[in-house]
């Protein structure tokens, strides 16, 4: 890492190196795009970037690995189809960087059971799968911290659901630096100075997600008719009866989705129709469905072409693994020395 990339401000290291990842637990969706991938594509132009397919993280909730290879390749292909360029960013598979496991072990000694048990994502996942509350699930934020700081990264483009994990990562980094010396910059969630994004589900509640509710999530792999069907099923009601009424959550969500893919003029027209009580939700959803098809179809087609080229995907993974491992090895040398594990 050069001096330009890492600087020391009032005793705290900061870094312009970028790191983020996506779990291969299913097909990518609009939430992954607007929460994370869109920023990967913008950031790769200006920063040193590391992006990974988080295959080890997926084992915490998906112990059955029969679909893992297929999902890893799909996540690679879909990211590239969205514009991630493996020649500009280092794009790799988490399990190919063995050093992360070692750093995870050291960080586990600095993470406390009480704080891990209080993590919202841990509590949610434990509630959903009470039969598999494993230690990997509990220490997920520790492994995530290791993934980020193995490249001494400071900027982490993620969606809103990851905010708490980044706060925990800063705590682990502070403890490490306090005990062993200033090695790691503090990582921060990044969205170009704007609020972190949460793309809501089409059912008006929760967020779009890979594995939870197929009908309320728009996937890049969805064909045009499936996209139309899902959007037309989005929850609406009889419409406002008073001018300028506040919007119910589920209608606000439809407008929020429109802001992601529709033209400003079109959104303005429907907003005016809402305010003067002339809105027809059937038309609104038809418009949204067509704009979604226009946005998703080219990405789906590109991803399918990339998926058909296995040789390219394997070479991409190998190239990414070599570059990411080199960066990880440099960091681990500093870490072992700082801890005092350099006996000769
Ligand atoms: P998922 O929740 O679909 O399994 P991951 O946990 O693999 O996704 O997260 C990958 C990235 O996508 C993270 O940066 C996460 O914040 C972002 N992300 C996932 N779902 C959404 C959403 N609905 N809105 C915004 N960002 C999201």
Q: Please mark out the parts with pLDDT under 50 across 5 or more consecutive residues, or reply none.
A: none
Give the C-level CATH assignment of the largest domain: Alpha Beta
Strand order of the largest sheet: 3-4-5
Oligomer: single chain
Mean pLDDT over the residues? 95
Helical segment count: 14
| Cα separation of the termini | 25 Å
- Name of the CATH homologous superfamily of the largest domain: HUPs
Biggest beta sheet attributes: 3 strands, parallel
What is the radius of gyration computed over CA atoms, rounded to a whole number of angstroms?
Answer: 22 Å
Q: Give the topology string: H per helix, E per strand.
A: EEEHEHHEHHHHHEHEHHHHH
Your description of this structure?
- The chain is mainly alpha-helical and 344 residues long.
- The chain has two domains: 3-197 and 309-339, HUPs (Rossmann fold), CATH 3.40.50.620; 214-303, Tyrosyl-Transfer RNA Synthetase (Orthogonal Bundle).
- Helix content is 52%, strand content 8%.
- It is built from 14 helices and seven strands.
- It has helices at 30-43, 55-58, 68-81, 99-108, 113-117, 120-128, 135-138, 140-149, 163-180, 224-232, 249-261, 264-275, 281-307, 310-339; strands at residues 6-9, 12-15, 18-22, 49-53, 90-93, 155-156, 188-189.
- It has a three-stranded parallel sheet with strand order 3-4-5, with helices on both faces. Strands 1-2 form a two-stranded antiparallel ribbon. A two-stranded parallel sheet has the order 6-7.
- The longest helix is centred in the last third of the chain and has 30 residues, at 310-339.
- The mean pLDDT is 95.
